[in-house]
Write a structure and sequence with these properties.
The protein is mainly β. It has three domains: 141 residues, Immunoglobulin-like; 49 residues, no CATH class; 138 residues, Immunoglobulins (Immunoglobulin-like). The relative contact order is 0.12.
């Protein structure tokens, strides 16, 4: 079976060329694999989210409307994407002369804040050919900061009003506004109040990309882009003050964090299961100054077990903290690292493990 990463890496090409390329033509890739834009009865006619924004860490339903105008049943793969990054792939069978609405819930945990363009592929694959039946670019959805109940990329008095209204309405009617359900329990209670207050205070405590208008930036730099299997991946996370004024931040042992993901989802978070020293200090960044820390990813997964992998034992040559959650070694392929600090995230940095 052709690597799923190969299909995704070719997505941008298809977006630009699908309309201009005649049906049944083929494009030869350097690897010798061909992408066949064959005509068929399978057509994606819409990709929707049902809402215009979602708070980071919340889930949102994505639905594709697919028609089969052929006379016989067809089985194919359907891949949902956000900004051409694959979110979910499922196998769909549609009877002839019928329509379907496959869907899935996209968990936005770990995805950077910002606008995402939704799209979907209908495809199948053999050893040397990817057959693309249909490709559709849907609308946009905003992944915004937690506490933003109104979708305007900030947390302010409008969101406080919206939360109070949602809370009162819930106890009057029993209907729960999912944007206000910070505990993800399907109901509103005092814990949701506590979390909203925390998000409200966190937003104004700053600094974040929203409060400072981008005065603080975070970057990630790696030593190289290709690593051997089992080779430590060393990189640096750096916060820089790009303004003309000194900015004071609260620095702790967990100021920096990072995640690692691939086509299967988020598989590693640095802070997960890690006990950090309890200290905090005010740290001033002069104009143009930076705060940097070095990190190492040991090619392990502590959130999603990697396929065909056995847990890594404490005491092995991979750093595993005693009593920490089970971890699994990574497999060869493409991975993306995203650094986090003070409510900011870096752009995903792609690396390859061979």
């Amino acid at each position: 079976m052709i690597s799923f990463i190969l299909l995704v890496s070719f997505a941008v090409f298809l977006v630009g060329n699908l309309n201009e390329t005649k049906a049944s033509s083929a494009v030869t890739l350097p690897t010798g694999v061909t992408v066949d834009l064959s005509s068929s009865g399978i057509t994606i006619v819409n990709v929707t989210s049902g809402q215009s924004f979602v708070e980071q860490g919340f889930s949102v339903n994505l639905t594709a409307t697919v028609d089969n105008t052929g006379s016989s049943a067809t089985t194919f793969n359907l891949t949902f994407c956000a900004n051409n990054f694959p979110l979910n792939t499922q196998t769909v069978t549609l009877a002839g002369q019928s329509s379907g609405a496959p869907y899935f819930d996209w968990n936005t945990t770990g995805f950077a804040l910002g606008n995402y363009t939704l799209s979907a592929f209908a495809w199948s694959a053999s050893e040397k050919t990817i057959v693309v039946y249909s490709y559709f670019v849907g609308g946009k959805i905003l992944v915004t900061c937690p506490g933003d109940l109104t979708g305007h990329f900030k947390v302010d008095f409008r969101d406080l009003t919206a939360f109070v209204g949602a809370y009162i309405y819930y106890f009057r009617t029993g209907w729960c506004n999912p944007a206000a359900d910070f505990c993800h329990t399907g109901k509103l209670n005092f814990l949701d109040v506590i979390l909203f207050v925390a998000y409200y205070e966190e937003y104004y405590a700053g600094p974040t990309p929203f409060v400072t208008g981008g005065a603080l930036t975070i970057t990630l730099s790696v030593e190289k882009l290709t690593y051997s299997l089992g080779e430590p991946v060393n990189f640096t996370l750096s916060i820089k003050n790009t303004s003309k004024n000194t900015i004071t931040i609260q620095r702790t042992a967990s100021t920096f964090d990072f995640i690692v993901y691939n086509a299967t989802g988020i598989m590693y978070r640095y802070s997960f299961g890690r006990v950090c020293p309890m200290w905090a200090m005010l740290y001033s960044l002069a104009p143009g100054a930076s705060l940097a820390e070095n990190f190492t990813w040991d090619q392990i997964c502590n959130l999603i077990p990697c396929p065909s992998a056995s847990p890594v034992a404490a005491g092995s040559n991979i750093s595993v903290l005693p009593g920490s959650p089970p971890v699994f070694p990574a497999s060869p392929g493409s991975y993306y690292i995203v650094g986090e600090a003070l409510g900011m995230q870096t752009a995903p940095q792609e690396i390859t493990i061979t």
